[in-house]
């Protein structure tokens, strides 16, 4: 069973950038579809972005498209977050999963999450 570990969380000012990383332990994530979700206080989990095993395709939530970029390099998946807004404040979770035929992302394994707090 794969275990995922997210790093890169912390505090940010609105407009700043942060990069999250996701690294597996126990098993590789190479060639697997990977994604990021987030959960803000009092809200449900929200899909953020996903990336295919080869680096394509990439899919994004409308709320982050154009500001966030998902990428991968060997056994690490990244989420580059630019132009952060206070509404991006949430716990961000890395997940391994798969694409449905419509390229929506279904997670199978989750990491414990990392907190991003954006102040105005």
What tags apply to this protein structure?
7-stranded mixed beta sheet; single chain; 120 residues; mainly beta; 4-stranded antiparallel beta sheet; 11 strands; globular
Query: What is the H/E order?
Result: EEEEEEEEEEE
Instruction: Give the count of helical stretches.
Output: 0
What's the story with the biggest beta sheet? 7 strands, mixed
Strand content: over 45%
Taking all Cα atoms into account, the compactness measure Rg is 13 Å
Average pLDDT: 95
What are the SSEs and their pairings?
Blueprint: E1 3-7, E2 10-13, E3 18-25, E4 33-39, E5 46-51, E6 58-60, E7 68-73, E8 76-81, E9 90-99, E10 105-110, E11 114-119
Parallel strand pairs: 2-11
Antiparallel strand pairs: 1-3, 3-8, 4-5, 4-9, 5-6, 7-8, 9-10, 9-11
Question: Can you tell me about this structure?
Answer:
This protein is mostly beta strands and 120 residues long. The protein has strands at residues 3-7, 10-13, 18-25, 33-39, 46-51, 58-60, 68-73, 76-81, 90-99, 105-110, 114-119. The strands form 2 sheets. Strands 2, 4, 5, 6, 9, 10 and 11 form a 7-stranded mixed β-sheet that branches. It has a 4-stranded antiparallel β-sheet with strand order 1-3-8-7, with no helix packed on it. A hairpin with a 2-residue loop joins strand 7 and strand 8.
Structure summarized in a few sentences:
Helix content is 0%, strand content 56%. The chain has 120 residues and is mainly β.
């Amino acid at each position: 069973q794969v275990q995922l570990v997210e790093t890169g969380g912390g505090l940010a000012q609105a407009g700043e950038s942060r990069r999250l990383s996701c690294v597996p332990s126990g098993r590789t994530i190479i060639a697997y579809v990977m994604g990021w979700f987030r959960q803000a206080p009092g809200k449900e989990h929200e899909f953020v972005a996903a990336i295919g095993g080869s680096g394509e395709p990439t899919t994004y939530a409308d709320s982050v498209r154009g500001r966030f970029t998902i990428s991968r390099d060997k056994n690490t998946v990244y989420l580059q977050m630019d132009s952060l807004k206070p509404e991006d404040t949430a716990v961000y979770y890395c997940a391994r999963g798969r694409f449905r035929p419509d390229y929506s992302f279904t997670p199978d394994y989750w990491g414990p999450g990392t907190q991003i707090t954006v102040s105005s």
